[in-house]
Write a structure and sequence with these properties.
Cytochrome p450, five-stranded mixed β-sheet, binds protoporphyrin IX containing FE
Length: 432
């Protein structure tokens, strides 16, 4: 086996089976490491990751979605490339996604969206989640088996965000099908990003939603977004509202569904943990935080140095591409005691960087946490046991598990489960 530093993180499929071994080895090379294979600086240290994510002045998010392998549409020159970035922003792939915005346009987009994610709205959406999770779980428990990732997790997260936004019910199956067929972001088979056709499709439908809700508002979140104003009371351009609505719909699909898959993998591989959680469902949120830390579904994000600066001891010149190993930082022993251990009672576990940090910290984190808690609680409450289907995945020690071929997303492509019903299921109300 090649050393981690000899393997190209952006194309090497062997990393998919055990990315944590790769991240640990990279961390052993230093918190900040200049790749010999690509023109990229890797950040693995927790403190250094926070420093980069928290420094939106020196680091642009322009390449956060496309990644560092997609060529820049300009050759960086000088000690400050802020002007070059703005001049060429529109030419870079994925520039329409808010995760790539910088400065005032980003702050304005955040201001529009964060108003929508208020606790009262999430509470109302939770009623939908609870009802849908209950029906979905009862149906698979009655069958005694399911393929969890595509059959349960993916439709669940798609329909929850569709309900939150107010996507009409009759349109929802189209989105489920389109998202199901899409390649993951950060495709290992094509690390240079090209146009994303699924986002284009979703954007087209969302344009109609926004236009019709500007004309005739309804009682839903899309109408609020369509008619929202910036803090200075100006009305956003319709194209911008469509972009934001699209990204809101799409950004939490793969990430949440794949995290659900990883949660289930932990549960089937550690039956003592599964029993402990079933006996005390109040521990489910702690469980979710440890899975986020140890198996976060966004492994990395990337930044472009806007001006000459430093990360830790390393001098960074303007134009340097920086990839932050979020999943590596979440295993840094300088921050985490026994980082590889799964600890339900880990203090300050929520401080992991699985949702990023700083100006671009995940806006959907409260929604993701609620989705995970609701579906996992229902599954545990309605079963006496959940096991991995060994016909599909092989016995312990010789498991056959396939992970998304992505340098961004971490998660299983499929997870076949066998479910034993609880003799007496616990109701959602009783476990709250
Ligand atoms: C387990 C599930 C999720 C994970 C692991 C995750 C992870 C992340 C990370 C790491 C970032 C920061 C990227 C960066 O700084 O470059 C981010 C940003 C973002 N996430 Fe999530 N996410 C999840 C679920 C969601 C959901 C459910 C939504 C939508 C409802 C969502 C919407 C967004 C948006 C819009 C941004 C961009 C924020 C900005 O640029 O200011 N995410 N997410």
């Amino acid at each position: 086996m090649l050393l981690a530093v000899e393997r190209d993180y952006f194309t090497d499929r062997s990393i998919l089976d055990d990315p944590n071994a790769f991240f640990d080895e990279m961390l052993g090379r230093g918190s900040v490491y200049r790749s010999q294979l690509r023109d990229v600086v890797f950040v693995s240290g927790f403190a250094e990751a926070l420093a980069v994510l928290g420094n939106a002045e020196d680091f642009s998010s322009l390449i956060a979605a496309a990644g560092p392998v997609t060529p820049l549409p300009f050759v960086p020159s000088g000690s400050d490339i802020a002007e070059q970035i703005e001049l060429h922003r529109a030419e870079l792939s994925a520039n329409e996604l808010m995760v790539t915005y910088d400065g005032p346009p980003h702050a304005a987009a955040r201001a529009l969206l964060s108003r929508l994610f208020v606790p009262s709205r999430l509470k109302a959406n939770e009623a939908f989640m609870v009802d849908y999770a209950d029906r979905q779980v009862r149906s698979v428990v009655a069958q005694g088996r399911c393929e969890f990732v595509k059959q349960m997790a993916q439709p669940f997260v798609t329909l929850v965000i569709a309900d939150l936004l107010g996507v009409p019910e009759e349109d929802r199956p189209r989105f489920v099908a389109a998202l199901d067929a899409a390649p993951p972001p950060g495709n290992l088979n094509a690390p240079v990003r090209t146009e994303n056709l699924v986002l284009k499709f979703i954007g087209g439908v969302f344009r109609d939603y926004i236009a019709s809700r500007r004309a005739t508002p309804r009682d839903d979140l899309l109408s609020e977004l369509a008619n929202a104003r910036y803090p200075d009371d100006t009305i956003p351009d319709i194209d911008e509202v469509v972009r934001l609505a699209t990204v809101l719909f799409a950004a939490g699909q793969d990430t949440s569904a794949k995290l659900l898959g990883s949660c289930l993998r932990f549960l089937v591989e550690d039956k003592a943990l599964q029993s402990q959680l079933r006996a005390n469902l109040a521990l489910v949120p702690n469980f979710i935080e440890e899975v986020l830390r140890l198996e976060g579904s966004s492994k990395i994000t990337s930044r472009l140095a806007r001006r000459d600066t430093r990360i830790g001891d390393m001098a960074i010149t303007a134009g340097t591409r920086v990839t932050i190993f979020l999943s590596g930082a979440n295993r840094d022993p300088r921050r985490w005691e026994e980082p590889a251990a799964f600890k339900l009672d880990r203090p300050r576990a929520r401080e992991h960087v699985a949702f990023g940090r700083g100006a671009h910290t995940c806006i959907g984190a409260p929604l993701a946490r609620a989705e995970l808690r609701v579906l996992l609680t229902h599954l545990l409450a309605q079963t006496a046991d959940i096991s991995l289907c060994e016909t599909e995945h092989g016995p312990p020690g010789a498991r056959r598990l396939d992970y998304e071929p992505s340098f961004i997303i971490r998660g299983l492509t499929a997870l076949h489960l066998e479910l034993t019903p609880a003799s007496q299921g616990q109701s959602w109300e009783a476990v709250q």
